[in-house]
Amino acid sequence: MNICAVDFPAGIGELEKAEPTPLPSVGVRPPRIAQSPVSFECRRITGLSLGPRSTLEVGRVIHIHIRDDLVDPAKTYVHTEKMRLVGRMHGRGWYARTTDLFLMDRLDLATWNADNQ
Questions:
Q1: For the chain, which terminus, N or C, has the lower number of CB atoms within 10 Å?
Q2: Where are the domains of the chain?
Q3: What global pTM score does this model have?
Q4: What is the architecture of the domain spanning 3-115?
């Protein structure tokens, strides 16, 4: 992930430098990465300029690929806690891990109403 953040000159692909294993995508031209437990294929909707070197890209997910061992098909459940993901956040070096997960059940309206009378 860090290698893919290098500002290589035009014509030098970050994927060839990082050397991940490419897999063909279903609905987009760029390949996906075999080592990724989850991949999203997206179509760009628009980009919003946030300054001279920053753009917020907005897209629509058209395909999701999830490693088989992370899915419980009987419950249509994805085991997020098993993914152990790392994500690039902002700036030049901030990253986050998903190894500090906790579960907080969502409140339903009846519980909310009962607790707030």
A1: C
A2: 3-115
A3: 0.71
A4: Roll (2.30)
